[in-house]
Design brief:
It is built from 21 helices and twelve strands. It is an alpha/beta fold. A five-stranded parallel beta sheet has the order 6-7-8-11-12, with helices on one face. Strands 1-4-5 form a three-stranded parallel beta sheet. α18 links the parallel β11 and β12. The radius of gyration is 23 Å and the shape is globular.
């Protein structure tokens, strides 16, 4: 029997062990999509306790922050909400989390949690109810006292070279400007453009957001074209601060035949308080999305499309706590052909940007890989990417399925690899998790005689997927 989480954790063959320890283990990280706070990086925030990092709490404005993966796990074990997002004592909250974690055999949360404890706190004993109070005390002490466990310290010791945060077009990016002007911050931190609120015309708060965007930009917005023009100006501002990527969190990716006039008509109806149909909304959404995609191509910005998520499924929790609080789920959509039509329109005029596609539905893996193959060009290897296993697919089996599908139907060696998509500075341990799973997959292929034991070829593949492909794709090197 193998020891739990030893140095060869998840590595089943000698080839896998060699590839991981020789090439993958110590490569820098490119965290090209995450939700961490640039303010906390600039201020080099120190955390008071491990429950503050893992479970979070409430911001001054009453909104919630924390790891909603852990919140879901605790709710699934019947833990009262006051221990999950409430203000119960920190040691008791971690004790309750440990009770749920103990039962979570097969869940990646068990691995992530213990990888974080081992990597950042030197804790080799798995978290359990009987040691939870001691773990809370020791980890909290280290967070307060150890300089390498401040935000910048965590980034530094994780070997992070690039961080792409997620930012609204109306954001003034003041923290990014401060980071760029601080020579003591060695990691490259750049904003990513998230224009969902300006695109989702049939969602609550659209008119209010347009008013805010108009105020921030100093430009009057009276038409769909005005929206597109303002977003373009804001995108250029983001680009001036190093923006490498956009990100779109969509229920599904729309595509409707459109004209500027038709999009304007839909926009005016909404701004005048009239109801619109789904088809009308899609006309406007396609107009804005296609227009932005052309600007992404012009500015060399990667377009990321996340879709097939049904958000805020639990009305009670959403009304009480707001979005991103652990009540989202996989949705079944059929937008593959719409994505193809969008990319085809852009390809026809030579304006298709580098694009990464993520579906929350794992049934879409093969569709994405066949779709991507339709729009590859000589601009860069793997111009259209199948993004890493996202959210509920961010599991051992989910990552294996995504990479096997990409290997079967595309070129795995051109994959841009892992990202955290997280709000936690401890989540960089997930890159280690991914790299072990990746090296194990290809190590097994080599030892099964399915790929030659060619050291140079394997080195290129491992270094590419774990670091170099993303560095090239996002223009970091």
């Amino acid at each position: 029997m193998r020891k739990f989480m030893d140095e060869d954790f998840l590595l089943e063959t000698e080839t896998a062990k060699h590839l991981f320890h020789t090439y993958a283990e110590n490569l820098p990280l490119v965290d090209y999509h995450c939700h961490i706070s640039p303010r906390e990086i600039y201020e080099d925030r120190r955390f008071n306790s491990i429950d503050e990092v893992w479970l979070g709490g409430r911001n001054d404005d009453g909104s919630y922050f924390g790891d909603h993966y852990k919140w879901r796990l605790m709710r699934s074990h019947g833990i009262p909400e006051e221990y999950i997002t409430g203000d119960m004592p920190g040691d008791e909250r971690i004790g309750k989390f440990a009770e749920a974690l103990e039962m979570a055999i097969g869940n990646p949360m068990y691995h992530w949690t213990n990888l974080e404890l081992k990597k950042y706190f030197g804790c080799d004993v798995p978290l359990a109810p009987e040691n939870a109070k001691n773990v809370w005390e020791e980890c909290s002490r280290k967070l307060r006292e150890d300089g390498e466990l401040s935000v910048r310290g965590l980034i530094r010791q994780s070997g992070v070279k690039f961080i792409g945060t997620t930012d609204d077009p109306a954001d003034d990016l003041s923290w990014h400007k401060k980071i760029a002007g601080d020579p003591s911050i060695e990691v490259m931190v750049c904003p990513s453009f998230r224009p969902d609120k300006a695109i989702n015309i049939n969602k609550a708060g659209f008119a209010e957001y347009i008013a805010r965007l108009s105020e921030v930009s100093g430009m009057k917005i009276e038409s769909a074209k005005d929206v597109k023009d303002v977003l373009t100006k804001r995108l250029e501002y983001f680009a001036s601060l190093g923006c490498r990527a956009s990100d779109h969190g969509l229920d599904y990716v729309p595509y409707r035949e459109y004209t500027e006039e038709a999009a304007d008509a839909v926009f005016r109806k909404v701004m005048e308080g009239e109801a619109i149909t789904t088809g009308e909304a899609e006309v406007y959404e396609t107009y804005i999305l296609a227009g932005l995609a052309r600007e992404y191509h012009r500015l060399g910005i990667v377009m990321q499309l996340h879709y097939s998520c049904y958000r805020n499924a639990n009305d009670r929790i959403f009304k009480t706590m707001g979005p991103d609080t652990g009540v989202d789920m996989i949705a079944v959509t059929s937008c593959g052909t719409q994505i193809a039509r969008l990319l085809s329109e852009l390809d026809e005029t030579g304006e298709c940007p580098k694009t990464i596609l993520y579906s929350l539905n794992p049934a879409d893996d093969q569709q994405i890989d066949t779709l991507a193959g339709c729009f590859q060009t000589d601009e860069i290897p793997g111009k259209i990417q199948h993004g890493s296993a996202w959210w509920f697919n961010d599991t051992k089996s989910g990552m294996e399925a995504q990479m096997r599908s990409l290997a079967n139907l595309g070129i795995l060696g051109n994959f841009v690899g892992m990202l955290t998509d997280s709000r936690s500075f401890l989540s960089y341990a997930r890159h280690d998790y991914f790299r072990r799973i990746f090296c194990n997959i290809i190590g097994n292929w080599v030892e099964n005689g399915e790929y030659p034991d060619n050291e140079e070829s394997l080195r290129k593949i491992v270094e590419g997927v774990c670091y170099k492909n993303a560095a090239r794709y996002f223009g970091i090197e």
